Amino acid sequence: MVLGDTCTRGCRFCSVKTAKNPPPPDPKEPVNTAKAIVSWGLDYVVLTSVDRDGNLLC
């Protein structure tokens, strides 16, 4: 899951932890994710992410 493991929503059906102010995303995450995909030799990737309502940087 990209953008960390903490979501800004508290959906009743979801088991992802929530917080109003989650920790900031890892600035190296895009590069690290791309490197991992290349190293795994994948042709198709589906990425999921937590919700970051109100965070204009994401």
Q: How is the quaternary structure best described? A: single chain
- Biggest beta-sheet profile: 2 strands, parallel
* Proportion of residues in β-strands: 5-15%
Number of domains: 1
Number of strands: 2
Assign the structural class, choosing from mainly alpha, mainly beta, alpha/beta, alpha+beta, or little secondary structure. alpha+beta
Q: Quickly count the helices.
A: 1
H/E topology pattern: EEH
Radius of gyration: 13 Å
Termini gap: 14 Å
Mean pLDDT: 85
- Detail the poorly predicted runs: none
GO molecular function, one term: lipoate synthase activity
Protein name: Radical SAM core domain-containing protein
InterPro entries: Lipoyl_synth, rSAM, rSAM_sf
Cofactor: [4Fe-4S] cluster
Structure description:
- This protein has one helix spanning 29-40, and strands at 6-7, 17-18.
- Helices cover 21% and strands 7% of the residues.
- It starts with 5 loop residues before the first strand and ends in an 18-residue tail after the last helix.
- It has one domain (1-53).
- The longest helix is centred in the middle third of the chain and has 12 residues, at 29-40.
- Strands 1-2 form a two-stranded parallel ribbon.
- The chain has one helix and two strands, in the order E-E-H.
Which keywords apply here?
2 strands, two-stranded parallel sheet, 7% strand, 58 residues, alpha+beta, single chain, 1 helix
In a few lines, what is going on in this structure?
This protein has 58 residues and is an alpha+beta fold.
How is the secondary structure organized here?
Elements: E1 6-7, E2 17-18, H1 29-40
Parallel strand pairs: 1-2
